[in-house]
Amino acid sequence: MKIKRMKKNLLFLLTCLIFISLCTPLQANELEKQQPERKVITVAILREEGINNENLKDEYINGYTHEYLKKIEQFSPVKFECIFYNPIDEEILDVLNQVKEGKIDLLGGILKNSGFDEGYLFSDLPYGYVSTSLLAKVDNMDINERILLEDDTIKIGVISKSETQKEYINNYITENKINPIIIEFDSNEDITQALMNNEIDLMIGRDTTKSEDVRVIVNLVETPYYFVTAENNEEVMNIINDSMRELKIINPEFIDDLYEKYYSTPYLSTSLTNEEKQFINELDILKVGVIPNDYPLQYFDYSTKEFEGILIDLMNLISENTGLKIEYVMLDNINDIKGDFESGLIDMLLGIPADYSRANRNEYLLTSAIVNLPVVRISNAYASRGSEIAMSGYLNLNKNFTVNYDDEDLFKKIAEGKYKEAYIDGYRAQYFSLYYPSVNVIPSVYENYELAIGLYNKHDYRIMSILEQGIRGISQHKIDDIIYDSINVNNKYSLMDYFRQNPFQSISIVVVISSMLVGILLLFLYKSNQMKKELEKERKKYEYLAQFDQLTQVYNQQTFKNKVQSHIEKKSSGSIISMDLDNFKNINDSQGHFEGDRLLEEFGKLLKETFGEYISGRLGGDEFMVYLDAVHDENYLRQLCGEFLLNLDKIEKEYELTISIGILIFNKSMDFDDLYYHVDKILYSVKDSGRNNIKIEVIN
Question: How far apart, in whole angstroms, are the C-alpha atoms of residue 236 and residue 228?
């Protein structure tokens, strides 16, 4: 009887499982049907560097407008499909008509004073701003805004038929009471040519137009730009407006961050006058006082024999931007700052709190803040036995807090439970938290505090003005990079540090690990001969797989980039070749990917045979690059590429395989991304002009 009951129960259970398995897909399908489809909105975007950039080679799109659309896509039930148009009058008018006819849903980058308000709806909010600016040649360092305001011989070019340009420049002249020389030209091309030929000093352009040839001196007028749709397409514009408002609430700084990313330069130019430059040349070396052992802000690294830290890197940039000559002096303490100034030991003090009462007492002047430090709270809830609250000696929060000038000791006492909690700046906290993992770092209610440079008040007042310009010449992105590198790269946390700071936990860990190591060691010795061979074989295999493209046997993208970057950091000259198969997609489509892969494999072998002594890599798809360290001979490069093209015919003549080649010869300091950007432009100029050719450009 029991066996029969068991059989019945098993049969019932099996029936239930079959029923559930049949129902589950139906439920999943029902859920899928309930998911609303995202409406596709087509957006026309101006094809322009910075605002938008379309890389047709790998179908990767980036740019200001595109990234903004991708962001607001997160807050809307739509999906944006981007199409691009060129800044040509005929194309712009055609796109406008297509928007009005409903063939295109949305148009980006439109100013409200464009003269076609009728028949169109503008977004409620702008999604960016463009400034009409005065531009100078990038290598003309003798021109800046302050010189413009002082020198009546400055020549500014304007378009004779552009009343808008004349209005902007006249307003600027009137407001600043200056009298530059205005020269009129027939077209913007004529003005640009005159600027390049040094016939004029300045021309009018936009701050959003990235160029290697010009830089912004001063912005004249800032104008917002909007999204536009047809006036009968209110549904689309309502979606856009709602999404834009939501983004503004969630991330009000997004537009500023986007502008910084796509339009600002890493280093802003200072606006030193010729007199200031002369003054700097005649100025003696300035001695900069460094607060001792102020990790990670400023300290002396005994292993490198160099001063290191966030503030040191910023001070070096200020020196580089202005030309000020500096040397660092390590102070024993900061108890007699006034005496250090009066004795001539130092001329300025680095990383002093922006406290004007303290500055007056010690007879130094304060610059603008060079770094802004967040205040955080640290605690150890598991170890806390005391009720005492402490703070770093660099802060001035509450007179009832215990002051501790040794930040590492502050962390140690929190870890040991001697302090209930303490307050310290976020950068020092992040640095020391690696050494004390038991200490928790928590945001606090206190406002950030600022560090500045203190300049002895008996020095020439012009030094302060120059320092301020040097500070202004450092972008926030550069400051963020320096902070990240100093906190996350320079922290060398060793096992001995952990043992020293956590003795009781360390003893237990040592006992457990020692027992495990003994067992592992015995096992390892038992099988050492067999395992050694296998491990060596596997190591070589994975080392090769990690560095080389498996199809073509040349370096993969990341390895190629790393090796080139390593070379150009040691030498700031050489050449780089970019190659792209012209009709490879047709071969893939007609003959299949297997045949395409075979051709790429042969291509890689030929690349190694021809350029064997140089660095070759596959950047992706049918794009290859070769880096030739310290090679500048144009004839030699053409000879190498010619030999490569001759051998290319040996692969497969029936496919009529051709390639486009762009070559960049450089004699200046550049990073890999700059090299890639320039040589890619050269390559695509070859492809645009008919393909199957070689083009060489030189950057000095």
Answer: 10
Strand segments, DSSP code E, in 594-687 are 615-620, 623-629, 659-666
Three-state SS for 184? strand
Count of all residues that appear for the chain in the document: 700
- pLDDT the model gives residue 84: 84
- Rounded to 5°, the CA angle 317-318-320 comes to 60
Asked if residue 27 lies in contact with residue 89, where contact means CB atoms within 8 angstroms, the answer is no
User: Contact at 8 Å (CB) between 627 and 576?
Assistant: yes
| Cα 149 off chain centre by | 34
Residues contacting residue 654 through CB under 8 Å, at least 6 positions apart = none
* pLDDT attached to residue 505: 62
* Cβ burial, residue 61 (10 Å; 0-12/13-18/19+): middle
Instruction: Return the DSSP state at 447.
Output: P
Kindly state the percentage of the chain with pLDDT values over 70.
86
Q: Shortest CA distance to 628 belongs to which of 581, 674, 684, 675?
A: 675
**Residue 45: pLDDT over 50:** yes
The answer to whether residues 172 and 220 touch, using CB atoms and an 8 Å cutoff, is yes
Q: What tokens appear for 46 in the block? A: 């101006």
- 3-state SS assignment for residue 56: coil
Distance CA 578, CA 660 (A): 8
303 to 189, 482, 493, 699: CA distances (angstroms)? 56, 20, 15, 38
| Higher-pLDDT residue of 455, 53 | 455
Q: Which CA distances in Å does 294 have to 388, 617, 676?
A: 24, 44, 39
Q: What is the mean pLDDT of residues 262-291?
A: 78
Residue 128 pairs with which residues in a beta bridge?
225
CA 146 – CA 129 distance, rounded (Å)? 25
Nearest Cα to 216, choosing from 180, 176, 263, 273? Answer: 263
Token pair, residue 409, equals 């000791």
3-state secondary structure of 58: coil
Place 209 in a pLDDT band, splitting at 50, 70 and 90: low
Q: Are 100 and 204 in contact (CB under 8 A)?
A: no
Largest CA distance in the chain: 114
In three-state secondary structure terms, 492 is: coil
Q: What are phi and psi of 216, to 5 degrees?
A: -80, 130
